[in-house]
Design a protein that fits this description.
By secondary structure, the protein is mainly alpha-helical. It is 75% helix and 0% strand. The longest helix is centred in the first third of the chain and has 28 residues, at 35-62. The N and C termini lie far apart (39 Å).
Length: 154
């Protein structure tokens, strides 16, 4: 199986779990969410966005030097930001602030759902096979651009 065939098959499997079909994102797309609901979501989900570089670092530490490790480290650097762009969690905080969530976002405790999500990502990054971790990260990251566009539109 070529890399392109693998990615096509992976994308087909991920499509079955398209986040834009979730009732929350459907309501967002239709403009049915209140500012308070979006503020709550942004404040809660921040914790996962903030932890994403940690997941990548946990995986990278287990990988041998090579192309895969370098790709993970490049993604990690992108998540953490540079002189060209802000860290993704800082961008998320700006998003949360636009809906009225400010400093409390960093210090609030994540909901059980977000805490469970974070636990899953940590366990997969630290203990799962590299293939499991990469597939998990890809399933998430591959949907982010479409989700971001829909959030902006909705």
């Amino acid at each position: 199986m070529t890399s392109q065939e693998f990615l096509r098959e992976l994308d087909e499997r991920i499509a079955k779990f398209d986040l834009l079909t979730h009732p929350f994102y459907q309501a967002w797309s239709k403009g049915e969410l209140t500012r308070e609901e979006i503020r709550e979501y942004a404040s809660d989900y921040y914790h996962h966005v903030h932890a994403f570089p940690t997941y990548l670092a946990e995986l990278a530490m287990r990988l041998e030097d090579g192309d895969l490790r370098q790709t993970v480290l490049t993604n990690l650097a992108d998540e953490k930001g540079s002189h060209d762009h802000s860290a993704h969690d800082e961008i998320w905080l700006d998003f949360a602030a636009a809906f009225g969530a400010h400093d409390v976002t960093r210090h609030r405790k994540p909901s059980t759902g977000v805490a469970d999500l974070m636990k899953f990502y940590h366990q997969t990054a630290a203990d799962g096979s590299p293939q499991e971790a990469i597939a998990t990260f890809y399933a998430y990251e591959s949907q982010v651009p479409r989700l971001a566009a829909e959030k902006e539109r909705g």
